[in-house]
């Protein structure tokens, strides 16, 4: 009887994991993500049913044995996937747009079963593109399960395993189910008036009722109530009807994304399927000769490993083949199958037999040591990415970013470099300024000047701000006032001109005011910019062609600013395109060295390449 039940559940697991994979791989399964909710109901059922066969008078022995079995079952395969995913994320995902930082932060939380709390903060909603760049996104469901496991053995030992009249149990869990279901709907209502919906989706509280539904199914299944009341034919018909309803939910047009209460439909269908499992079932029996069910049972056996590996594989392939969907699906299916088979046979199955006879202490020690090791690797990697890995193409190789001197990251107006310098130079601008910052910092050090860097990402220096009352607007106003007050030896101004016409005209007015105040000024115009690869550069992800170019497109920036380069004023417009471009092509990389970090931002190497052209002009104007 037990084998029949397990075979049936494996088929249900296979259906759930296949729907999740189809959804993640972009196949036409609109609601494939609810396969995770089916897993939650199954987990409540399986855990409860397995505990029926384990008797223990000692509470602490019971709890320790429970956690030992959960660790052996789940952690070794997860840890192997965790380490491999971490390595591939460092090697192949670029640190230049923030994904790698978010991945490494999420990995730490995933290791300790808390990624469902980290993901809303670091990757946003489950359904937003930002989350789909994180190879640890799928670990949110594992964290929810682990949090359920923290409380369930206590509930089971104190309430379910005690010899009390069964009707009392049924009343207890039905009440618990109703309360938890109402909580889930209540949290959804809060989301409509302000609580972020992504936090609701990942919430353990909003998912608890799904596990309880499985627990209740296990209690009712043990009583065999449907088997006593209905013939096997009627039970089969009920089961087939519930299965059809579940499959319909996967492909229906119902909006499960924003209406979590609709999950009652597929979860109740799963509840009915579990409740009607019978050893004589003509459809789900392990003795069936339908090969499709044999295949599904096999997939069910491998479902945990499949779920672990499919998402990291898909994310990494999206990095390598961003525009070739057919190749991605083919390779993702192939690698997921290979890694799942290896994980199940070499890790899951082997560790089940290896640790079965080990003491609870040895298993827990194994768990703690691996967690500590994984945490050290993640922390070391996070420290590396925050320092730009020491690579010239990495965003945090810019000194201003590395030293946390962009005012978006620190509540201050500016940073000071080479404080013992004789006179003051000012670097002013948005992200274009900190991108050229290494060059200006080195110039000030080499020539004995103090440098004050006023940089704020996405906040251009202008007299006509589009955001006069927020932090950016106040910083713009305060920075300009201070610079006009201290009258530095030189102002180096670098900014994107991709803002509104009003902001650009305000920037032009500031340049004119600096000139009228006789403050020497070098305006560094925006460089030509990189290509799609510039934003995806990583350790082991390098272009095939080490010398890349892009077509030259000249823009009359002076018209955008509304100023003229008037002779006789201490004002220089430095155009990087004059030195990075020929008449038709602009250099993006040379001999494998990237000139850009991401988008139009110069890399430290690109800025250093311009030193021989920029420095003489700066020196001439500052000494004139």
Describe the protein's architecture and organization.
Helices cover 60% and strands 6% of the residues. It is an alpha/beta fold and 624 residues long. It has a six-stranded mixed β-sheet with strand order 1-3-2-4-5-7, sandwiched between helices. The chain has a three-stranded antiparallel β-sheet with strand order 6-8-9, with no helix packed on it. The chain is elongated and about 95 Å long. Mean pLDDT is 84; it is low at 1-5, 189-195 and 279-289.
Keywords, separated by commas or semicolons:
single chain; alpha/beta; three-stranded antiparallel beta sheet; 60% helix
Largest sheet: 6 strands, mixed
Number of strands: 9
User: Which strand order does the major sheet show?
Assistant: 1-3-2-4-5-7
Point out poorly predicted stretches: 1-5, 189-195, 279-289
Helix tally? 24
Helix content: 55-70%
How much is the average pLDDT? 84
Bulk shape: elongated
- What is the quaternary state of this protein? single chain
Radius of gyration: 31 Å
Structure at a glance:
This protein is an alpha/beta fold and 624 residues long.
Q: How is the secondary structure organized here?
A:
Elements: H1 2-24, H2 35-52, H3 59-92, H4 99-111, H5 115-122, H6 139-160, H7 166-192, H8 197-202, H9 208-223, H10 225-229, H11 232-251, H12 264-275, H13 291-301, H14 303-320, H15 325-355, H16 360-386, H17 399-402, E1 415-417, E2 424-429, H18 431-435, H19 437-447, E3 450-455, H20 471-486, E4 490-494, H21 501-516, E5 521-524, E6 548-551, H22 557-561, E7 571-574, H23 577-580, E8 585-590, E9 593-594, H24 604-623
Parallel strand pairs: 2-3, 2-4, 4-5, 5-7
Antiparallel strand pairs: 1-3, 6-8, 8-9
Helix pairs in contact: 1-2, 1-13, 1-14, 2-9, 2-12, 3-4, 3-6, 3-14, 3-15, 3-16, 4-5, 4-16, 5-6, 7-9, 9-12, 11-12, 14-15, 19-24
């Amino acid at each position: 009887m037990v084998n029949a039940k397990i075979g049936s559940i494996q088929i249900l697991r296979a259906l759930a994991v296949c729907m999740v994979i189809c959804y993640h791989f972009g196949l036409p399964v609109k609601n494939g993500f609810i396969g995770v909710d089916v897993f939650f109901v199954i987990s409540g059922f399986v855990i409860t049913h397995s505990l029926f066969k384990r008797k223990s008078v000692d509470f602490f022995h019971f709890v320790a044995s429970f956690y030992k079995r959960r660790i052996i079952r789940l952690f070794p395969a997860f840890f192997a996937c965790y380490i491999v995913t971490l390595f591939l994320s460092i090697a192949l995902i670029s640190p230049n747009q923030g994904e790698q930082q978010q991945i490494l932060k999420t990995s730490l939380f995933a290791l300790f079963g808390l990624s469902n709390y980290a993901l809303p903060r670091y990757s946003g909603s489950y359904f937003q593109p930002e989350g789909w760049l994180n190879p640890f996104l799928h670990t949110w469901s594992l964290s929810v399960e682990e949090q359920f496991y923290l409380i369930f053995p206590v509930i089971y030992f104190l309430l379910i395993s005690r010899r009390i009249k069964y009707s009392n149990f049924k009343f207890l869990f039905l009440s618990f189910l109703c309360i938890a279901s109402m909580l889930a709907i209540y949290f959804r209502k809060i989301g409509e008036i302000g609580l972020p919906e992504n936090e609701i989706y990942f919430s353990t509280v909003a998912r608890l009722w799904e596990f309880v539904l499985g627990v209740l199914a296990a209690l009712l299944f043990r009583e065999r109530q449907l088997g006593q009341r209905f013939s096997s034919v009627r039970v089969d018909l009920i089961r087939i009807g519930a299965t059809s309803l579940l499959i319909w939910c996967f492909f229906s047009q119902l909006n499960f994304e924003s209406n979590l209460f609709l999950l009652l439909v597929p979860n109740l269908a799963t509840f009915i399927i579990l409740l009607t499992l019978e050893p004589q079932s003509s459809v789900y029996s392990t003795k069936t000769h339908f090969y499709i069910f044999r295949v599904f049972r096999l997939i069910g056996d491998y479902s945990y490993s499949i779920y672990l590996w499919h998402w990291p594989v898909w994310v990494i392939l999206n990095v390598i083949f961003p525009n070739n969907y057919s190749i991605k699906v083919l390779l993702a299916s192939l690698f997921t199958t290979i890694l799942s088979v290896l994980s199940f046979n070499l890790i899951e199955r082997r560790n089940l037999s290896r640790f079965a006879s080990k003491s609870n202490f040895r298993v827990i020690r194994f768990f703690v040591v691996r967690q500590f090791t994984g945490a050290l690797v993640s922390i070391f990697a996070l420290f590396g990415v925050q320092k730009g890995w020491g690579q010239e193409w990495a965003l945090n190789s810019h000194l201003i970013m590395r030293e946390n001197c962009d005012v978006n990251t620190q509540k201050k107006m500016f940073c000071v470099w080479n404080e013992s310098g004789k006179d003051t130079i000012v670097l002013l601008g948005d992200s274009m300024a900190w991108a050229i910052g290494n060059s200006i910092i080195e110039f000030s050090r080499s020539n004995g000047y103090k440098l004050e860097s006023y940089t704020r990402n996405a906040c251009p220096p202008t007299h006509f701000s589009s955001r006069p009352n927020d932090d950016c607007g106040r910083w713009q106003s305060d920075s300009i006032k201070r610079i006009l007050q201290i009258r530095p030896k030189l102002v180096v101004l670098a900014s994107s001109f991709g803002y509104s016409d009003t902001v650009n005209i305000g920037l032009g007015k500031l340049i004119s005011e600096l000139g009228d105040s006789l403050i020497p000024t070098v305006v560094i115009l925006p460089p030509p910019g990189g290509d799609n690869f510039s934003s995806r550069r990583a350790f082991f992800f390098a272009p095939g062609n080490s010398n890349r170019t892009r077509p030259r497109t000249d823009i009359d920036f002076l018209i955008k600013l509304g100023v003229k380069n008037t002779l006789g004023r201490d004002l220089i417009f430095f155009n990087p395109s004059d030195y990075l471009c020929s008449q038709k092509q602009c250099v993006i990389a040379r001999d494998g060295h990237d000139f850009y970090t991401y988008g139009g931002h110069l890399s430290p190497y690109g800025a250093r390449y311009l030193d021989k052209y920029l420095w003489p002009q700066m020196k001439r104007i500052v000494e004139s």
